[in-house]
Amino acid sequence: MYGIMRKLLFRLPPETAHDLALTGLDMAGKLGLLKAFVTEPDPLPVRVMGLDFPNPVGLAAGLDKNADHLDALGALGFGFIEVGTVTPLAQPGNPRPRMFRLSGHQAIINRMGFNNHGLEHLLDRVDRRRYPGVLGINVGKNKVTPNEESESDYRKGIAAVYSRADYITVNVSSPNTPGLRDLQFGDSLKGLMQAIKDEQARGEKEHGRYVPLAVKIAPDMDEAGIRFVATALKESGLDGVIATNTTISRDAVAGHRHAGEAGGLSGRPVREPSTRVIQALYAELGDTLPIIGVGGITDGDSAAEKIRAGAKLVQIYTGFIYRGPALIRESVEAIRQLG
């Protein structure tokens, strides 16, 4: 069924298809049709960051930026859902077109630019949800906020979502906000981690609950960069790391008509770079800090590969667009086979 729908949707511009698919999913959910077409995976419970997940396969941030589709997405069998990236103020993102399919590679290039309706809208939608599962909220900084003032935006985001989120992700790795990736390195990263840990402590005191914090990093790091990040993570006391975001490399899609488009490349071409980062992080961190693996998961084997590399959970996004809900169950079953 999804294969037929995808053929129709892929005739439309990517962003139009994205919005139409989610609207259709919402309608199907309200009419009670999802259970007839979706077979949820059998439970495969796992405890990570002090949270209990019904299975280790989640939805990555970016697909539901504003938490507008939580109930419908939550009915598909995900072990957890991450919404956002949300910024303190609403912003339109980059001019269209800003999303491009590379179907032969099962890939997407996007330069969305943190387009979202802002914190107030997202919080309203989260408060209305019926989805009872694990919810992560991914926070970022506004484009107009200078890097030297970025701590303020991240503090605002964490403070606003703290009482609603089961975990919070700090996004410092999108290639589509100028200068954002600079926050992954040196004193910028250490200062930011200290700031967000301070905000976490403030939230715990105010709300009487500890909400884990994770940071999302890029796949375009050398070994020295990965070691630095791992050391900073251990020193800061963060609760998890998401590896990885999209890549700016075009090596795997060289020659494609969209290869020259600016933005982050996701999907199958990111499988190896993402897994390489996970392996390197795990070599430094071991089991002291959990890794959530994301990037290039298009089938069960690639999901299991992330777990073998050291991840405790995985997330899907582009593979979900190409494969549909069947990828969730297939990934869970492949991970189950690992024992």
From TrEMBL:
SUPFAM superfamilies: FMN-linked oxidoreductases (SSF51395). The keyword Cytoplasm does not apply. Keywords: Cell membrane, Flavoprotein, FMN, Membrane, Oxidoreductase, Pyrimidine biosynthesis. Pathway: Pyrimidine metabolism; UMP biosynthesis via de novo pathway; orotate from (S)-dihydroorotate (quinone route): step 1/1. Binds 1 FMN per subunit. Transmembrane segments: none annotated. InterPro entries: Aldolase_TIM (IPR013785), DHO_dehydrogenase (IPR050074), Dihydroorotate_DH_1_2 (IPR012135), Dihydroorotate_DH_2 (IPR005719), Dihydroorotate_DH_cat (IPR005720), Dihydroorotate_DH_CS (IPR001295). FMN binds at residues 61-65, 85, 138, 171, 216, 244, 267, 296, 317-318. Catalyzes the conversion of dihydroorotate to orotate with quinone as electron acceptor. Monomer. Belongs to the dihydroorotate dehydrogenase family. Type 2 subfamily. This is Dihydroorotate dehydrogenase (quinone). It comes from Marinobacter orientalis.
